[in-house]
Design a protein that fits this description.
Blueprint lengths: L5 H21 L12 H12 L15 H13 L3 H27 L2 H13 L2 H5 L6 H19 L5 H15 L6 H19 L23 H18 L2 H4 L3 H16 L22 E7 L4 E7 L3 H21 L2 H15 L15 H15 L7 H17 L9 E2 H7 L7
Antiparallel strand pairs: 1-2, 2-3
Helix pairs in contact: 1-4, 2-3, 3-4, 4-5, 4-7, 4-15, 5-15, 5-16, 7-8, 8-10, 9-14, 13-14, 13-15, 14-15
Length: about 425
C-alpha cells in the first residue's frame, strides 16, 4: 500500500481536530437561553441586519460588521435563539484550534508537537469560553490565527507569494470582525520591512546558521509591489467587502463608518467597569471577567468565568522567556515568529489610549503561548513523554475549571469559592 502523502495526512488530521473540537464546543451551548455578558450588544445588532430595511440608529457601530453578519446569518438559518446566536462562535473556535495545529506544523515540521500545541490551546480555557458566546473576539481569533499559520508556512519558502497573499486576505477578515485583528497584520508588516531593510543594508551574520530568522537570500523574488498587494491591498479589500452589505458602495458611508469606529475605539474611557483590567496584569491572570453568575438552587450556581487555565498560562511565562532568549541569542526563526506574534498581539494594547481593558483582549496572545510551551518541552535532551505528560496536566486543569467555564455543568457555591483562588478573582 502506498504511503499517505504528508499533505493529505495533515489535512485529515486538521479535519479530525475541527470535528472533535466543534462537537465538544456544541455540548450545552444553549445554556443559558438568555443573553450572556456582551451578547446584549452584538445579538441585537445582528438582528437589526436581518430587518427588510435597516433601522436607525445603527446598533453597535463601534465595531466592524463581519462577526455580526455571521451571527445574523446563523440566526436566519437556525432561529433567533441561544443556538442561533452562538453557533458561529463554535465554528470559529474549532477553526482557531485547527489554526494552532497548522502553526505547529510550520514551526516544528512534525505532527506530534503540532497536535500537542492544538490540545494545549484547547485546554487553555480561554478559547473554550469565548467560542461559546456570541461576541466578536473568537471570529477575529479564528481568522487571525489562520492568517498567522499561512504566514509561518510561507516564511521559509523561496516563493512565499501565495501564502503571504492568503495571510493578508485573512488578516483583513479578522480586522473586519474587530480592529484588534490588525495587530498581527502589523507584526507581519514589521517583520517583512525589517528583513528587507537588513537585506538592503547587505547585513550578514558572521556565524550564519540554517535556523537564523534572517538570511540575506530570503524571498529572492518577493518585491515591494508584492508586499504591498499582500499586506495592504488584499487586507483592505477583504476588510471593506464586509461593509458592502450594510453601506453598499457609497464611499461617504464607508469613510463615515471607519471614522466612527476609530472615534469609539480611541476614546479614553472615563467610567470604570467591575471587571476591567490593564494589559500588564493579563499574563498573570490577575482579574477575570464573570460572564455569568446565576444562583439556580439553594447551593447551586451556573457560572461562566473568563479566566484562562493557570496550569497553561502561568507555565507559559517562563517558556516565553526561553523563546525570547533563543530568538536573541540563537537567532532561531521559530522562536522569532512565536515571540513576534505573542508580544505583538499583547503589547499592542499598551499603545492604545483606551483605559478600559479586559482580560479577554489577551486571548490571541494567550493562544499563541501554547506554541511557546511546545517549543520548550520538545527541546533536545528532554524526554519525549514530557510534552504529553504536560498535555495531561493541562487537561486536568481544564477539567477542574469546567464547572466555572460552562454554564450547563453547574457547581456548588463551595466549589466556586474554592476555585476563586485570589481576592482579585472575586
Amino acid at each position: 500500500m502506498p504511503a499517505v502523502p504528508k499533505v493529505s495526512r495533515s489535512a485529515v488530521i486538521a479535519v479530525a481536530i475541527f470535528l472533535v473540537a466543534h462537537l465538544a464546543l456544541l455540548i450545552g451551548l444553549t445554556t443559558p437561553e438568555k443573553f450572556v455578558f456582551d451578547e446584549v450588544h452584538y445579538v441585537p445588532a445582528a438582528r437589526q441586519m436581518l430587518a427588510p430595511a435597516m433601522s436607525q440608529p445603527m446598533l453597535n457601530p463601534m465595531h466592524p460588521p463581519l462577526a455580526k453578519e455571521l451571527i445574523a446569518a446563523s440566526i436566519a438559518a437556525f432561529g433567533d435563539n441561544a443556538f442561533g446566536w452562538r453557533y458561529p462562535a463554535t465554528l470559529f473556535g474549532a477553526l482557531a484550534i485547527v489554526a494552532i495545529y497548522l502553526c505547529g506544523l510550520a514551526l516544528f515540521s512534525a505532527q506530534a508537537p503540532a497536535m500537542a500545541a492544538a490540545l494545549i490551546a484547547a485546554f487553555n480555557q480561554m478559547v473554550y469560553v469565548q467560542a461559546r458566546i456570541a461576541m466578536l473576539d473568537i471570529f477575529a481569533l479564528g481568522f487571525g490565527l489562520l492568517a498567522m499559520a499561512a504566514f509561518m508556512h510561507g516564511f521559509r519558502k523561496e516563493r512565499p507569494h501565495a501564502l503571504f497573499a492568503l495571510a493578508g486576505a485573512l488578516f483583513g477578515l479578522a480586522a473586519a470582525c474587530k480592529w484588534s485583528g490588525l495587530f498581527p497584520l502589523g507584526v507581519c508588516i514589521v517583520i517583512v520591512a525589517v528583513i528587507r531593510l537588513m537585506q538592503g543594508w547587505r547585513t550578514l551574520f558572521t556565524d550564519a546558521k540554517p535556523d537564523d530568522w534572517y538570511r540575506p537570500d530570503l524571498w529572492p523574488g518577493f518585491r515591494l509591489h508584492h508586499a504591498t498587494v499582500c499586506f495592504a491591498v488584499l487586507p483592505a479589500a477583504t476588510y471593506l467587502a464586509a461593509f458592502v452589505p450594510l453601506h453598499g458602495l457609497s464611499l461617504t458611508d464607508l469613510i463615515e463608518a471607519q471614522r466612527r469606529i476609530f472615534a469609539d475605539n480611541t476614546t479614553t474611557a472615563i467610567a470604570g467597569h467591575t471587571y476591567m483590567s490593564s494589559w500588564p496584569s493579563w499574563p498573570l491572570l490577575a482579574r477575570p471577567v464573570w460572564f455569568l453568575f446565576d444562583k439556580t438552587a439553594h447551593d447551586s450556581i451556573s457560572a461562566i468565568v473568563f479566566l484562562g487555565n493557570p496550569l497553561v498560562l502561568w507555565p507559559a511565562l517562563p517558556a516565553l522567556a526561553i523563546v525570547l532568549r533563543d530568538f536573541i541569542v540563537a537567532r532561531r526563526w521559530d522562536a522569532f515568529l512565536i515571540a513576534a506574534f505573542y508580544f505583538g498581539s499583547w503589547l499592542a494594547w499598551a499603545l492604545l489610549p483606551r483605559t478600559l481593558g479586559f482580560i479577554y483582549y489577551y486571548l490571541p496572545a494567550a493562544t499563541v503561548a501554547s506554541l511557546a510551551l511546545v517549543y520548550v518541552l520538545r527541546r533536545e535532551g528532554l524526554p519525549r513523554w514530557l510534552l504529553w505528560a504536560y498535555v495531561g496536566v493541562a487537561a486536568v486543569g481544564f477539567a477542574v475549571m469546567l464547572p466555572i467555564s460552562a454554564a450547563y455543568v453547574g457547581t456548588s457555591m463551595q466549589t466556586f469559592s474554592r476555585l476563586m483562588l485570589f481576592q482579585s478573582w472575586i
